[in-house]
Write a structure and sequence with these properties.
alpha+beta; 6-stranded antiparallel β-sheet; 5 helices; 19% helix; globular
Length: 242
């Protein structure tokens, strides 16, 4: 699915369909033509491009499928995850774990586009899809410069609050809900410097447990230096690349 086509469709949809008319999100799902009409990119993953225009608000809701967001274009949008305002910028990865209320608002004058990836087909197969609209008091336009999630668990590699494992016991997702592009960019550069070029890959992880960020979704970033050909690999899980 080519980004030029998506951007053109997004601009047209933004002109024609306001978010408050018949739905609370403006997304284009990537439908694999081999899945008999199902709106999924694979048998285990749902992926889509979401567009939020200047001044728009996507109201709060929550659902049992877990979601992650990768910002492809734009700055200055906030998403609230259970009331915690998280600034969204280009290259950032933001988590919305299962059954967390979330809403998005754009106080700026430019549109934002991000990639949504959900474990929706897996949860549908298990007949465990639940959805709930958010209460009116969650409709908020907070723009805190740094989220609570980052202040607690985003202080740097190997640094977490004492007693975190006890506090997070029973939680199966990362308590850090946003991973900043500047940190990932720096990490990839450092790895390439050590290797002397080629390619480098990092994995986003729960800073307390070291596990993947969510039970059903793994996030990675790879940098391939110009002129490099990587080795072949394969895996049983499906992968969405941006």
């Amino acid at each position: 699915w080519r980004v030029a086509d998506l951007m053109d469709l997004g601009r047209r949809a933004q002109d024609l369909i306001p978010i408050d008319r018949g739905g609370d999100r403006r997304v284009f799902a990537f439908a694999n033509p081999g899945l008999k009409g199902a709106p999924y990119v694979s048998n285990t993953l749902w992926a889509a491009a979401q567009f939020l225009g200047p001044g728009e608000l996507a109201p709060a809701h929550r659902h049992s499928p877990a979601a992650l967001r990768f910002v492809m274009e734009g700055e200055g949008v906030w998403t609230l995850v259970n009331g915690d305002p998280i600034h969204m910028g280009r290259g950032d990865v933001i988590l919305t774990p299962s059954w967390n209320f979330h809403e998005h608002h754009n106080p700026g004058d430019k549109s934002m586009v991000w990639l949504d990836v959900l474990d929706l087909p897996v949860v549908e197969f298990l007949e465990a899809i639940f959805f709930e609209e958010g209460p009116s008091e969650l409709v908020d336009r907070k723009t805190d410069p740094r989220s609570v999630s980052e202040r607690q668990f985003g202080q740097g590699a190997g640094i977490v609050p004492s007693g975190s494992k006890g506090v997070m016991k029973g939680s199966r997702h990362s308590p850090l809900l946003v991973f900043r592009w500047a940190d990932v960019d720096s990490a990839l550069d450092a790895l390439l410097e050590i290797k002397g070029g080629g390619d480098a890959q990092i994995r986003y992880q729960d800073p307390v447990s070291g596990n993947d960020v969510m039970p059903t979704l793994r996030c990675e970033m790879r940098r391939v230096v110009q002129g490099t050909t990587t080795g072949a690999d394969r895996q049983t899980g499906s992968r969405v690349c941006a």
